[in-house]
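The data are quoted verbatim for completeness:
=====
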Amino acid sequence: MPRLSIEQIRRKELSEAAYEALQVWGLPGTTLVRVAAKAGVSKGIVLHYFRNKDELIEAAMRRSNAALRDEVVRRLAAARSPRERLEAVIEGNFDEHFFVPQITHAWLSFCGAVPRNPQFARLQRAIHARMHSNLMSALKHLLPAPQAQDAAQAISIMIDGLWLRHGLVQGGIDRAGALKRIKALVESLLKSA
């Protein structure tokens, strides 16, 4: 395994600190000074490794989404049928380590900036494309092509909506409730074929 450079290590530490800050203060309250304090460094050190706050936030969200992606991939590796693949994608997106208020709050804060930030919009498009691809890898074996495309979009929208509801409503939908609702949608979509 190749050794990480000091720059790679420092960028990783700073992006983790930024992600922690996002969970606490949201995007508007996540300042370079707060990230620096969480990482135990000066603001100047943060700016040495990242040009600006947007670049730092993008790196933090990339790390977070990579962790979620890795969980989905881990579950997909154990799947033995198209139906199990579909369940792996869905359950991976609601993993108990990720579907928690502080992470949904960070995600919502990030998404709120997407319409005005091309860097964030590009990352969000990549996330949605990966979700669509993962869903289609299962659905194309379960539904005719046009219906599979529509089902992938409906499931993806519902996943986003459940994350939104979880992040906005204190004491709202929990993991079990989210999974129950999305699995009901999947059953409905598959029965309609």
